[in-house]
Amino acid sequence: MAAPVDSACKPGAQRSPFNTTSFQKKTRSKLISIPGTRPSVLNGQLLVSTGVTSLDFLLGGGLAVGTVLLIEEDRYDSYSRMILKYFLAEGVVCRHELFVAAAQDNPDDILQELPAPILDDVAIHKPAEQPRLSCEPQDSLDAMKIAWRYQNLPKVQCALASSSRFGHYYDVSKTMEPEIRQAAKCHRFYLPEHPAQSSGTHSPMLQSYTALLRSLQEVIHREGFDVAAPMSKSRNILRIGLHSLGSALWGDDLSCHDNPTHRHSLAAFLYGLRALLRSSLSVAVVTVPSHLIQ
Amino acid sequence: MLPELLQGVDAGGLIVIQDCAGYSGRRLLQSFISAALNRDETVHVIGFEVSEEELIGGLKGSSTQRLHFHDAFTDPLGWTDHPAFTVRQFNLDEVTHLVKQTSLPKAPTLVIDSLSWILRHVSPAAVCKTLQQLRKGGAVRAVIGLLHTDMHQRGTVGSLCHLATSVITVAPGMKGDEAVAKITKRSKSGKVMLDEEIFHIREDLAVIVQSKASHTGHKQPDPSEKETDPTANLTFNLRLSDTEREAKKKLALPFVFSKEKKTALLHSVPGSGRILYEPDANDDFDQEDPDDDLDV
């Protein structure tokens, strides 16, 4: 079960300089609300957005914290990679922490390809810019003749602060700007950087999966994502993206042979991952090239 | 697309030529070698399956100093005391050492004949790892390998081709020495291009592409219908002449203020009302199913 929420509470309306009212909802709950999450209407579980709002709708509102989402890759790994990037981009916008693991591509390359979020700015009153506005608005392409009062307003106005929204929209034709991306904390695991150490004990998991699980455990414990950690600090969510588990580059021959020698390795890893996530404030998205696995 | 692949491989590329029992891909591999030599590139060939004379005998010419053959045919498993190149030596360090012996400024192209031979003695996971390291390493510009699909399980072939940037599957064609090539090319941006061509290889190892393989029942797309003008054939006049259009533009609309008053009103006052809208589930409008009642 994911981290339960005692009472269905929404984060209080944040004060912005352009707040029209001074009304602020009184929250009675002692649980510190985490930005970018909301409680599920069905059972009160804490949900995060996958980045794709239609997918959130299919999953029943969002992805529950403490769970693993497994995506079977398509033939050329185009759509599954896109969903993984959306998931990570959503983490950057909501200011969650990221953990990216891959064996084929460098995690830095994956992070550089994240789609750009569409953040609409609220129409800001700038008295210093008055002389600039005297230039002809009719010269611009979208000058409106009849509805000219709405000319300077953006097409879609979002809620007060973008990061308090659940689920954002992205422009896939552009990549996320480096300033936004570097504001988020990312942990990386690139398999070629972890040399193979011969383990003395016989373990049901491959050495690469063991190293990954150990690295995850270390990050969760060090950064304080355990549910058991002291509540005094502000809590955050860790988003874990694991690319192409089970492919040959992880050392797994599950996708190569009909009778693999390590047939249970990936399953053992997934069990370990689920157990680790159940007691922490994290959510994982895993892609598996199932078209190669017989 | 086959001529483009022959003309140049992008840096960090892995081309896998898949052949079957009906048509051998070795001639195509030789075409790739000769095309690379004609481009003044250095080529290193590791030959496991056939001897040196058979593979590059026909390529002896002026450009042989740029062609280096590493003999893994005579003793690939190291049964004698001094093997030239064994299959166990197919890993990143040994291959890099082999390739660096020529020490030229431009990174060479590595040709492997064939990957199937290596896969019979080394695990597929290790071969994939070595190929990936060679691609990313920078010691080698590009890797071209021959793979016999009949020799391996589907998963092994699939795993190897999953790594490749381009896969050329050759099969026997309809007549004579023609062959059909199905090409899958992955670009760096993630775009995948598929193509199917009929080709044959001349004596001088030049590849002649006959034509694109014709798909049965392929119709010409209908020419786009001319848009019918809705304002024609009416008993009343819906069109505007130029003078009428000018007059329409000049008409002063109500509530259209002068420019100064407009810009004064356009400054948003703090505290003015704003429209806040969060798109919800009903905004996911499906063009093909507007009523959401199709049972697909």
From TrEMBL, chain A:
It comes from Pleuronectes platessa. Component of the elongator complex which is required for multiple tRNA modifications, including mcm5U (5-methoxycarbonylmethyl uridine), mcm5s2U (5-methoxycarbonylmethyl-2-thiouridine), and ncm5U (5-carbamoylmethyl uridine). The elongator complex catalyzes the formation of carboxymethyluridine in the wobble base at position 34 in tRNAs. Residues 1-20 are annotated as: Disordered. It is found in: Cytoplasm; Nucleus. This is Elongator complex protein 4. GO terms for cellular component: cytoplasm; elongator holoenzyme complex; transcription elongation factor complex. The keyword Cytoplasm applies. Its main location: cytoplasm. Keywords: Cytoplasm, Nucleus, tRNA processing. Pathway: tRNA modification; 5-methoxycarbonylmethyl-2-thiouridine-tRNA biosynthesis. It holds the Pfam family PAXNEB. Coiled coil: none annotated. Signal peptide: none annotated. Belongs to the ELP4 family. CDD domains: Elp4. GO terms for biological process: tRNA wobble uridine modification.
Automatic annotation (TrEMBL), chain B:
It is found in: Cytoplasm; Nucleus. Keywords: Cytoplasm, Nucleus, tRNA processing. One of its GO terms (cellular component) is nucleus. GO terms for molecular function: tRNA binding. Residues 219-229 have a biased composition (Basic and acidic residues). InterPro entries: Elp5 (IPR019519), P-loop_NTPase (IPR027417). Residues 280-296 have a biased composition (Acidic residues). It comes from the Eukaryota. Pathway: tRNA modification; 5-methoxycarbonylmethyl-2-thiouridine-tRNA biosynthesis. GO terms for biological process: tRNA wobble uridine modification. Residues 212-232, 269-296 are annotated as: Disordered. Belongs to the ELP5 family. PANTHER family: ELONGATOR COMPLEX PROTEIN 5 (PTHR15641:SF1). This is Elongator complex protein 5. The lineage of its organism: Eukaryota, Metazoa, Chordata, Craniata, Vertebrata.
